[in-house]
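I am writing to request your help with a piece of structural work I have in hand. I set the record out below, with my sincere thanks for your time.
___
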Amino acid sequence: MAQTTKILLADDEAQLALAVKIRLQSKGYEVITATDGRAALALALQEKPDLILLDVMMPVLDGYSCLREINTKLGRGKVPIIILTARDRMKDLFELEGIEDYVVKPFDHEDLMVRIERALKRRAAKAASA
């Protein structure tokens, strides 16, 4: 039996997070959620997701700090991370941190699904060639 792909969704906007979670679950993904950066970091370390959707502006620990902690503790680039943010100008900064992709809010949900599937395919290809 094939293992379900696990996605960590970290966003404090409840309606947005619910909409994305429902869409991901309808595509067969297992979705775990966090509403602040500290919870996201804990879940990333505990659950070892296949992909992380990470909002930048979150309470307790912002997404940028969470990203840096994930990279330090799990290894930079080990888990594909797609940043969700309203701040388009931060793209270059996040690319320096080794993110997989970047989506500016508000975003098209189909576009997000395409980006997620592309990131997961790249991860699988990397794992197969390792």
User: Anything to note?
Assistant: The radius of gyration is 13 Å.
